[in-house]
Amino acid sequence: MKCDIVVVGVGGQGILAVATIITKAAAKEGRHVRQSEIHGMSQRGGSVSAFVRLSDDPIVSDIILDASADIILSLEPLESIRYLSLLKAGGSLITAKDPVVNIPNYPEIESIYESIQVVEKNLILDLKKLAIASGSIKAANIVLLGGVSHYLPIQSSNIENTITEFFKTKGEGVVQTNLKAYKLGRDIM
Fold it and tell me: Which in 18, 80, 89, 150 has the greatest CB count within 10 A?
C-alpha cells in the first residue's frame, strides 16, 4: 500500500492540522509516514501546502513528484488548481466550494470549477455550510478530512481517536465539534 496526499489551502485554514492528523492516525496502524509542509506567506492568507506520504514500506523522501499524488485535498479552490500537476491519472481531487479571495486578480470562480471538473474524480464540497452545521466554521478542514476518509488506507476509528487527541487541550467542546465535523464530512461522501 502506498498513498500520496497533497493538502493545500491558505494560511489559517488548518492545512497542517489535517496533514498531522492523517500522519498520526496512519502511524498508529504501523504505516511508514512522511510529512512536509510549505508555509509560504501563511500569516497573510498566502499559500500553504503539506505533502503526506503513507506506505507499508519505508519511504525515502517526503517529496511528491509531478503526476504521482493519489489525492489532492484543498480548502481553497484556486489552490487546488495550483497543485494539479502533482495529481496522477485516476487520482482524486476534493476541494472546498467557497474561495478565499485574497488577491486582486482572483479568477472567476466558474473558470476555476471548470478546471477542477476536468479531473475525472473530483468533488467540490460546501465545507462552510457543513462546518457551520457541526458547530464551528473553523472545523471546515475536519469536514474535508471526513470527506476524504473513505479514500484513506486508515481505519476511521483511528482518525477519530487522533482528532480527539489533537484537540483535547482545547477542551471537550472543541473535541466534540471536530468529531461532528468529521462525521458530517464522512456522511456526505
Answer: 80
